[in-house]
# Entry
Amino acid sequence: MDLFRKLFRFCLIYGPGRAFVKAVGRTRWTLRLKLVLSPFKRSDKFIAVVGCGQFAFSTIAFFLTKRHGECIKVALDIDEKAVNTFSACYGADVVLTNPASKFLLPDVKLVYVASNHASHTDYALRCLDAGIDVYIEKPICVSREQYEALRVAILKAQSKVYFGYNRPFSAAVKELKKHIKPTAFTLNCVVMGHLIPEDHWYREPAEGTRVCGNLGHWIDLSWHLLNCAGGVRFLDILIAYSNIETPDDNISVVLTSDRGDLITLTLTAREEPFEGISETIIFQQDGLFVKVDDFRRASFQLGHKKFNRRYWPKDVGHQKAVSQPFDGDTRNVSEVLCSTELMLEIMEMVRANKASSRFDIDGKL
Ligand SMILES: NC(=O)c1ccc[n+]([C@@H]2O[C@H](COP(=O)([O-])OP(=O)(O)OC[C@H]3O[C@@H](n4cnc5c(N)ncnc54)[C@H](O)[C@@H]3O)[C@@H](O)[C@H]2O)c1
# Structure
C-alpha cells in the first residue's frame, strides 16, 4: 500500500515518466526503456556509464535516453545485477564488472562517472588521461591527494570535464541569480536527508563522510552564490554537532565572510521524508527575499514586487546538469575546484570533531 502511495506521490512531484523509471530503478524490472522514453529517436552509441546504481539509472540514463535515444554503449559496475539490469533497460552493448577493465572503447566520446564516491577521481583521471570528456558526479574527490591529482589533470587536459553539482542549474536558483547583487547576504539551507543505515557504503571511512556525500551540494551552492554576489576573501567556518558519535548526520555548518555574509547549512536525518530528501532555502539580501520550498515552489520579493513560481516536475537541476556536455551551460571549473576544497576542509573538521576554522580564498581561484 505504502509503495503505491509513494508511487502516486512521486508521479505528482516528478511526473509519471520519471516516477516510473525511479520505480524501475529500485526494483530493476528489465524492460527496454527506450520504448517508453524515446521510441522514435535514433542515436549513435557514444557514452559510457560507470556506476549503474539508482542515480545513474533514474537520472543520468533517464535524461540521456529521453534526449538522444539509446546512446549508451558501455556500462560498468562491480555489481553484476546492477550492470546487467541497467544495460538491459538502456540497451548498452558492452557490460563490464571489473573496475580495471577497458571501458574507454574507440566509439566512446563521453563518460558519466556515478559510482561510489572514493572511485570518482580514479575513473575521471583515466578519462582525462585518454583525452575523453568526462562528467563526474559529486563529490569529485574525497581526499586532498585525489583533489590535487584531479586539479592538475583537469588543468592540463585536452578533454572537457563536467561536474554533477546540480543545484545551481535548478530553475529556482537560476531565477534567484537574476536578481542577486554584489553585496553580503544571508542564506539558510535546511536539508532533510535520507536515513542512511549504519552499514551503508556512504558511511565507509574511505567514502568521505556525509559532508562529501550530501552537504557538498550545499557547500557548492553557497560558494556559487557567493561568487555570483561578487566573491569574498575568506570564510570563517563554525560547526555545531548534535552528537559527536555520529558527527555527520545532524549538523549545522555556519559560514561567515570578511564582508558580512551569513550562511547556515543544516543537514538533519532523524526521520525519512516520505518523498525522499527535502530541501528548503531562504535567501535574503538588500532588496531581495527568496524562499525555495523543495525546488517545487518558490516565492520572490524584489523591493515591493512579489511573485511566486511553481516547478513541475520538481527541478533540482538534474536535467540541465546531465545535459551540460550538449547545451554549453556548464559549471565553472575553478569555482567547483574551490568549492571542493571548502568541502574537504569541512570534512576534515568533522572527522576531527573540530568546531572552527578559517578558509582563505586568496590565491585559490
Ligand atoms: N547529484 C545528485 O543530486 C545525486 C543524487 C543521488 C546520488 N548522487 C551521486 O550518484 C552516485 C551514485 O549514487 P547512487 O545513489 O546511485 O548509489 P547506488 O549505491 O545506488 O549506486 C552506486 C553504484 O556504484 C557501484 N560501484 C561501487 N563501487 C564501484 C566501482 N569501484 N566501480 C564501478 N561501480 C562501482 C555500485 O555497485 C552501485 O551499483 C554517488 O556519487 C552519489 O553521490 C548524486
Remarks:
- The domain at 2-163 is CATH 3.40.50.720 (Rossmann fold).
- The first helix runs from residue 2 to 14.
- The pocket of nicotinamide-adenine-dinucleotide is lined by residues 50-56, 76-79, 82, 99, 114-117, 119, 137-138, 164, 166, 213 (CB under 6 Å).
- The first strand starts at residue 47 and ends at 50.
